[in-house]
Amino acid sequence: MSCSHAKEWILQAALPEELAAAPPDVAAHVRECGQCQRLIQKLNRMERSWRDEPLPESAETARELFLSRQAVEPSRPVAAGPRRLVLARWAVVASVMLCVGLSVFFMSSPQTARADSDVIERLVDWNLELSESTTPADRERLYSERIESLKSDLAKTKLSDEDRSFAESLLENGRFLTSSTEPLEEAERFNVLADQIVDRVNIAATRSDAVAAKKNANQYSRIAATGIDAKLERELAKAAKIAKADEAFKQRMEKLEAREMNRLKKLEAIHKNAPDPARKEVRKMLDQTQPKPKKNPPKQAKG
Amino acid sequence: MPESRSESPFEAMVREHWDAVYRLLHSLCRNVHDTEDLSQETFLRAWKRIESFAPGTKMRSWLLKIASNAFLDEQRRRKRTRSQPLEEELPGALAEPGHSLDVAQQAAAIREAMKDLSELTRMVFHLRATEDLSFREIAEVAGTTEQAARWHMHHARTKILERLGNSE
Q: Which of A55, A105, A225 sits opposite B23 (nearest CB)?
């Protein structure tokens, strides 16, 4: 056991409670190694100083003000404004994520099975983080920071053919995102990933695998919201602002929408035939894929 | 003689968990204004769906999940409407007289390092360091898997250690 191996374990452990349950080789190394003991102490100090950060003084005042405004108790609070309308749509995502959290809690599948899906979860997280980074330098940094560990974890992990193919697409999409400067092109790429997820849900539904259906529904929600919808809405708003929706732009938007419609039809077909537990997840995906009202349709340039 | 008012269940919930919710949101928003708005939003949402809270489970984790969802919703809304992003306030706004310089410097270095981390990574680090949640509980709050939460913690610790190394 080398320091670097022990360090890898320490950096992702819940300290100090998991130290007692460390693998024997790690525990033996840490007992003997001053460097690793110092690392643990440093992490403990670091986390304590974060924990001990005082709250801003206004926190208490804000609480009292809030409580006084609510009078004794709010009677089933009413919507606080237009923001609620937007939040309603996201409630679907929140509920899917809650289901996924609960399913992880209740899952008693072996460690290897969990690790398999973790690589894919991390690849999805990484893709979305890359897509949300606004500067090429940030994307480059995020890419180079994670690519090696993701690749090596992927190589070590046992995956089914369809999982591996999806993971490879996510890796490839990550590479593409470092070179992309065009949101529409990014939305097109995420659209392809969304289609792959629909195929994966179809497989899960056929196998009556509700856990896999939930996981895929969660990934679908995140990719559809951050990778596709947010970019399309931003581009539409931009086009409306400059009132310059040229033919090429419109064609690309139409193509994207047509692809979404095809996906909608495919999901409807899956929904019709899916067994009960998977059907609920497909219903959520369907809700998310329904055509959205266009708030800022691009105006046609005159002349 | 003034009659002492008994605390309503809503008030009791707010008083018991306000600091934890506020702290998480402050680490995510990094400004007081949005933190206050979203803290209030969190408790209102929680009260509205209090029937969905499962007795016997941790109310704090449940509230922190609602808070993290409220933050993500707000962030997406701002991205979509291209309105101002959640803005950071001036560094050192949390400094407190009497707080040891060493600890304050370390906390400032952590705040700096946190700027470079994604929201999810910040959330995982905060929940582990401050709330002492297990990685399984963190995964539930953050909507990810236990293994991914560990990986985010690894990433956060590595980045913060690098920053502390540079500032020492």
A: A55
